[in-house]
Write a structure and sequence with these properties.
alpha/beta, 7-stranded mixed beta sheet, Spore Coat Polysaccharide Biosynthesis Protein SpsA, Chain A, Nucleotide-diphossugar_trans, NTP_transferase_dom
């Protein structure tokens, strides 16, 4: 089970190897996490590293792939708030295999760890998520977000009368937010190749060893998948000052 000697991880893996085809032309010459949110002066990965450092993380392993050298060059010249190691897959391992490969370079294999997708823009208290994970004695905990539906919706009554029009309401469903807390032992449960969300996670769910942590009310979260996401994130940053 959760064999952590301390409930708050100080190490993390960032998965930053995606091609970001839906973000072209921004990703024509760089990996997705190296795309800059307009007006911030820093790529997505830079903001992630700052957030992780603010939450007590001292060591990060970044899994690189597409345009790995661009990310590595930026890391070499940037003033970083924590220690960073990069690993590059020599052949595609799948999401689970890539996570396992990167986790092998964590400096403290006997301790718990976080992981995050490299295209996530978020701010919430990771220590609270780690405590939630520890209290439930889980092997893995997923952060859960409730994104806004990108369309306006129509509210009706039981007789079909239109009652209201609601612009971009929150989804009634929770989704995987792409941020995780893992026990030290979780790495051994990952496949060497393949997708852990189709193998490891379902098995842990059946065994009640997988937990879901809903993001706190008001926490900022956005996946940067398209050019529209970049524009919306820039607007939200101006509004919220993040």
């Amino acid at each position: 089970m959760a064999d952590a000697p301390h409930p708050y991880p100080t190490q993390a893996v960032v998965l930053a190897g995606g091609q970001g085809s839906r973000l072209r032309p921004y990703t024509d010459d760089r990996p997705k996490p190296m795309v800059e949110i307009p007006g911030t002066g820093s790529p997505i990965i830079g903001h992630q590293l700052n957030w992780l450092a603010e939450e007590g993380v001292t060591d990060v392993v970044i899994s690189c792939g597409h345009f790995a050298e661009v990310l590595q060059d930026w890391l070499a010249s940037a003033r970083l708030p924590l220690r960073v190691t990069t690993v590059v897959e020599t052949e595609p391992l799948g999401r689970g295999g890539g996570l396992k490969y990167a986790a092998a370079s964590l400096p403290r294999p006997e301790e718990p760890w976080y992981a995050t997708n490299g295209d996530i823009w978020t701010r919430f208290p990771l220590r609270e998520m780690a405590a939630f994970h520890h209290e439930r004695d889980a092997e893995a905990t997923l952060a859960l977000a409730r994104p806004r539906i990108p369309w306006g919706v129509v509210e009706t009554d039981a007789f079909g009368h239109v009652l209201d029009f609601i612009e971009a309401p929150p989804s009634p469903y929770l989704i995987n937010a792409g941020v995780y807390a893992f026990s030290a032992a979780f790495r051994d449960l990952l496949p060497a190749r393949g997708d852990h969300e189709r193998t490891t996670f379902p098995r842990l769910a059946r065994e009640r060893r997988l937990a879901g942590y809903p993001l706190p009310h008001g926490a900022y979260w956005r996946a940067i998948d398209t050019a529209k996401d970049l524009i919306e994130a820039a607007k939200e940053l101006g509004t919220h000052g993040r």
